[in-house]
Design a protein that fits this description.
Layout: E1 3-10, E2 18-24, E3 31-40, H1 43-49, E4 59-60, E5 64-72, E6 84-87, H2 97-100, E7 118-119, E8 126-127, E9 137-141, E10 145-147, H3 154-157, H4 163-174, E11 182-186, H5 190-202, E12 206-211, H6 214-223, E13 228-231, H7 237-246, E14 255-258, H8 263-272, E15 278-281, H9 295-301, E16 304-307, H10 315-327, E17 339-341, H11 346-355, E18 361-364
Length: 365
């Protein structure tokens, strides 16, 4: 029997979000209904609202979520009713060419719920990243649910569902930072700060945080493990590169991570790294962004340039591990929760996000 709950939707491009009744259908054979406990407010949700991802309005927003499995479809075996889960948007299929090659982190056919949630008039909703968790309950595929320690704070654990895992995974999985290496991270928003924390967890000896906000740079050192900071607000590209090299014995860092994704920071990350150094792009570039670098520089500098999708994570492997590390005090997951709000405050949270003064606002349902 279908259920009516409250959810936060974006009805038209750029319009303020609305809190409205939504209809959750009975789960399909491999679907589950999850009672949401907490969901982070991510830049991706704002991008959905503003039409920067697709035009399939109305959207049911929210995707960095944790909650309790409430109802399961008849064929579900992956989770059980009552399980505490973090939701993910990479429920690997196991059958596509990426999965069959042994690289499920690149799965090309990830699972989503088999049925659509709707408005009361029957209008189908498009859930953000196949999740739609700014709601009292949501419908997802069983593979989108990853069981973690039920003693974890839902507001913190849910953040692994997107942004924090993206930055953390960029450092640990994509860059494969080793103990004693040097790292420069461009941008200290939620993703960049997670990369700082990931570099610290991996044992990097020099961790340089670069941003234009002194408060963020202070937080990077005080809370997340940065060893050095550079405020790049009034510096040219060459000045930033020189400052990074000065902190790494003139050679440049072993790893650079661009968590901003604009041409300036990408160029700085490319040229500041050591010869044969590794560069990772995790900040999502705008659709019109271009990077002009001579081909000989790609060849002559060696090393590797990688993009990091979802931190190259495997939710079933990574989410429980990082929740456990957080519970042990070895990873500062809870420090990413800047404020706790309710479902009626999502639009205000978007405004707060634009000020750059929060790592994550988290909706508690």
């Amino acid at each position: 029997m279908s259920q009516k709950v409250t959810g936060v939707i974006a009805r038209t491009k750029g319009a303020p979000v609305e809190n409205v009744p939504i209809i959750i259908p009975d789960p399909g054979p491999n679907d589950v209904i999850v009672r949401i406990q907490a969901c982070g407010v991510c830049h991706t949700d704002l991008a959905y609202r503003d039409g920067d991802i697709e035009d399939a309005y109305p959207f049911l927003l929210g995707h960095e979520a944790a909650g309790i499995v409430e109802t399961i479809g008849r064929n579900v075996t992956h989770v059980a009713e009552g399980d505490f889960v973090v939701l993910n948007w990479r429920a690997v299929c196991g059958q596509c060419r990426a999965c069959k090659k042994g690289t499920p982190k690149y799965c090309f056919n990830t699972h989503n719920a088999s049925k659509k949630m709707t408005l009361e008039d029957g209008t189908e909703l498009t859930p953000a990243l196949g999740i739609g968790a700014f709601a009292e309950k949501t419908l997802v595929h069983e593979g989108q649910c990853t069981k973690v320690d039920p003693n974890a704070d839902p507001a913190a654990a849910g953040l692994l569902g997107c942004g924090i895992m993206a930055g953390l995974g960029a450092a640990v999985n994509t860059a494969e930072i080793q103990r004693g290496e040097s790292v420069a991270i461009f941008g200290c928003g939620g993703v960049g700060m997670a990369a700082v924390a990931g570099a610290h967890l991996a044992g990097a000896s020099t961790i340089i945080a670069i941003d234009i906000d002194d408060d963020k740079l202070h937080t990077a050192t005080a809370e997340f493990g940065a060893t050095h900071t550079i405020n790049s607000r009034n510096l040219s590209d060459d000045d930033v590169i020189a400052a990074i090299r000065e902190l790494t014995n003139t050679h440049g860092p072993d790893v650079t991570i661009d968590a901003v994704g604009i041409p300036a920071t990408t160029r700085q990350a490319f040229y500041s790294r050591d010869l044969a150094g590794r560069m990772v792009l995790v900040g999502v570039p705008g659709p019109d962004a271009r990077l002009d670098i001579p081909a000989i520089d790609f060849f002559g500098r060696g090393g590797s340039l990688k993009s990091s999708w979802y931190g190259d994570c495997l939710p079933e492997r990574d989410f429980p591990m990082y929740v456990d590390l957080a519970n042990q005090g070895r990873f500062p997951l809870g420090k990413f929760v800047t404020e706790r709000i309710n479902l009626t405050e999502v639009e205000q949270a978007f405004d707060t996000m634009k000020t750059g003064k929060v790592l994550r606002s988290v909706v508690e349902v």
